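Quiz preparation item.
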C-alpha cells in the first residue's frame, strides 16, 4: 500500500536538496549565508502539490506551506527554513504510518462471533496463525487481554497498526455504537477495508459511511465465490505474502474446497 503524502513529502525534500542553494559570503574569517538561489520551479511546484494533498488531513500545515511560498521572496531564508521544517515534520509523522506493522482487524457484533471465527479459521489456512496478524474481540487468541479496557484497546489498534478492516455487516451490527465507531474510524483513516454481509443482511440495511453502493461479499449471493477469490488475493497482497497461483489446479481445488466450506457454514447462520 502506497502512502501518497509520504511520497510527496520526500519528493519535496529531494527537490529542496537538489534545487535550493545557499550562497555564502566571506565575512572576515567566517563564511556566512548571503542569499538563496532556487533552480527552476520544481521545488515550488512540489510544495504546492504537497499542500494540496494534505489539505484535508493536515489543514493548518497546508495553509502554512502556501503562506510561506506566497511570502517567499520577502525573506527567502526565513520562509525556506519554515517550509523545510514543515516537510521534515510531515515525513516524520507519515514515516511512522508507513512502517507500522500490518494487521487484519475484524469489526463485528459479538452475536456474529461464529461468522468471525469461521473467517479467521479460513484465513489462517493461507496466511498463518500468528496472533499478531489478527484482531477480533470475540475470538479466543485474538481478543483483548484480561485487565485491558475495551475502547482504549480498539483505539490502540488504529493508532499502532496499518489495518485492513473486515466489516461483518448484519442487522445486529447496526445496533452497536462501538461497531459503528469502528466502521467510522476505518473510513476516516482511509484504511483498506472489505465488507461481508451475513445471510440475513441485505444491501438496503447498509447505512452510515459505508452504504448500499459498497462492493461487498453477500455470502449467499451468486457472485460470492468469485468475490472471495479476489478477497483472498487482496489479503495476501496487503500482508506482503505471495498470492495463490490459481493456474495450478491443485492450489485452486484446495482453495475452492476451503472457500465453499466457509460459505456453507456462515450461510446457515
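Solution:
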Amino acid at each position: 500500500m502506497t502512502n501518497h503524502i509520504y511520497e510527496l513529502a520526500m519528493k519535496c525534500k529531494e527537490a529542496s536538496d537538489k534545487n535550493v542553494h545557499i550562497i555564502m559570503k566571506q565575512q572576515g574569517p567566517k563564511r556566512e549565508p548571503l542569499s538563496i538561489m532556487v533552480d527552476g520551479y520544481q521545488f515550488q511546484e512540489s510544495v504546492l502539490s504537497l499542500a494540496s494533498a494534505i489539505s484535508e488531513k493536515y489543514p493548518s500545515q497546508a495553509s502554512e506551506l502556501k503562506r510561506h511560498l506566497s511570502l517567499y521572496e520577502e525573506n527567502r531564508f526565513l520562509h525556506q527554513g519554515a517550509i523545510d521544517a514543515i516537510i521534515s515534520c510531515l515525513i516524520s509523522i507519515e514515516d511512522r504510518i508507513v512502517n507500522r506493522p500490518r494487521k487484519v482487524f475484524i469489526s463485528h457484533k459479538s452475536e456474529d462471533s461464529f461468522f468471525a471465527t469461521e473467517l479467521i479459521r479460513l484465513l489462517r489456512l493461507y496466511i498463518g496463525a500468528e496472533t499478531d496478524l489478527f484482531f477480533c474481540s470475540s475470538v479466543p487468541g485474538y481478543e483483548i487481554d484480561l485487565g485491558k479496557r475495551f475502547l482504549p484497546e480498539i483505539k490502540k489498534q488504529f493508532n499502532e497498526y496499518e489495518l485492513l478492516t473486515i466489516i461483518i455487516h448484519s442487522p445486529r451490527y447496526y445496533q452497536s455504537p462501538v461497531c459503528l465507531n469502528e466502521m467510522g474510524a476505518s473510513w476516516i483513516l482511509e484504511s483498506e477495508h472489505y465488507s461481508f454481509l451475513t445471510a440475513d443482511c441485505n444491501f438496503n440495511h447498509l447505512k452510515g459511511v459505508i452504504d448500499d453502493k459498497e462492493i461487498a461479499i453477500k455470502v449467499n449471493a451468486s457472485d460470492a465465490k468469485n468475490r472471495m477469490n479476489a478477497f483472498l488475493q487482496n489479503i495476501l497482497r496487503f500482508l506482503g505474502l505471495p498470492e495463490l497461483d490459481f493456474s495450478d489446479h491443485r492450489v485452486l481445488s484446495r482453495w475452492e474446497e476451503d472457500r465453499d466450506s466457509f460459505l456453507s457454514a456462515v450461510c446457515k447462520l
